[in-house]
Amino acid sequence: MSTQSPATGPTTTGPAKIRLRHLQQAKEQGRPFSMLTAYDQFAAQAFEAAGIEALLVGDSVGTTVLGHTSTTATTHRDMLTFTGAVARSVRRPLILADLAFGTYESSPEQAFAHAVELVRAGAEAVKLEGGAEIAPQVRMLVQGGVPVIGHLGFTPQSVNTLSGHRVQGRDEAAARVLVEDALALQEAGAAAIVLELVPSAVADEVTAALTIPTIGIGAGSGCDGQVLVWQDMAGLSGFHGKFVKAFADLRGQLEQAARDYRDEVEQRAYPGPEHSFE
Ligand code: KIV
Predict the structure, then answer these.
(1) Which of 24, 169, 215, 264 could form a disulfide with 178, with the two C-beta atoms 3.0–4.6 Å apart?
(2) Which residue's alpha carbon is nearest to atom 1 within ligand 1?
(3) pTM above 0.90, yes or no
(4) How many domains is the chain built from?
(5) Mind listing the pLDDT tens digit for each residue in 111-128?
């Protein structure tokens, strides 16, 4: 990695810092906002330059960067490391970070202790998965000064209890529970709720029932905002789930660049005189 990159460090000019209240205003104005996951400096800075309003340091870092097969393997230490990296790298986007599996479920106190560490690392709100059952955690975090984002529908940390990656809330009873869970999180003080893998009509119903914003991933276009894992959005991961659109082919470009580099090394075409010292 370059130690002399002019891109290093957060930008110091440009539009004003995004806060949670801006997401709330966006909902009230009917203006969809965009969020991407981010885990490292250069990607985070590219997304800031592109005007992405919120960056989520997701526990998906475990499956997109660290080589795990499930986010249940992502640790609190991982979350602190990558939250710090993103927070030090950008200035404008709102920075959200996930509470890792096993760091908040057992009590509000457990949740608060871990959330405080994420805030110290640079998170401006924390996200946790679950519905009415984690409302006490949400209440304590908010009362303690830590804004909370909820996460309903398919909740990846529960992949084992949900028996795989499946659309949630398909039948009427499940859809009703989803709406009730969303209302319980809002009532406990959540500032927004991520809806993952939920039928569009159910996501629309939740969005209409709430005064706080919903942020969809595989939940249709009616949510107040959208989020994607950045490596899916940019075509780096090769994941082609139905809800994903690859807006670039970074995997192809990276492979081609590496192939060109290898060829030039083998032909002694690189480094050329312009890359060499007298
Ligand atoms: O960790 C993550 O990337 C997430 C998104 C799927 C919303 O929680």
Answers:
(1) 169
(2) 58
(3) yes
(4) 2
(5) 999 999 999 999 999 999
Q: Cβ–Cβ contacts within 10 Å for residue 43, how many? A: 20
Domain contains 197: yes
Structure tokens at 172: 């009427």
Q: Cα angle vertex 194, ends 192, 195, to 5°? A: 130
Name 58's Cβ contacts closer than 8 Å, sequence gap at least 6: 37, 39, 71, 98, 127, 229
Q: Which amino acid is at 44?
A: A
Question: Ligand 1 mean position to 255 CA, how many Å?
Answer: 26
Long-range contacts made by residues 138-141, C-beta under 8 angstroms, separation at least 24?
Answer: 138/185, 138/188, 138/189, 138/190, 139/108, 139/188, 139/189, 140/108, 140/109, 140/111, 140/112, 141/108, 141/111, 141/112, 141/115, 141/189
Active site residues: 196
Specify the pLDDT at position 207.
Answer: 98
Same domain, 114 and 144: yes
Q: Which domain holds residue 253?
A: 249-278
Q: Which atom of ligand 1 is nearest to the CA of 59?
A: 1
Bridge partners, 98 (sequence order): 127
Closest residue by Cα to residue 243 from 150, 166, 129, 149: 166
CA distance 156 to 162: 9
89 with 133, same domain: the answer is: yes
Most ligand 1 atoms within 8 A of CB, residue of 65, 162, 194 to mutate: 194
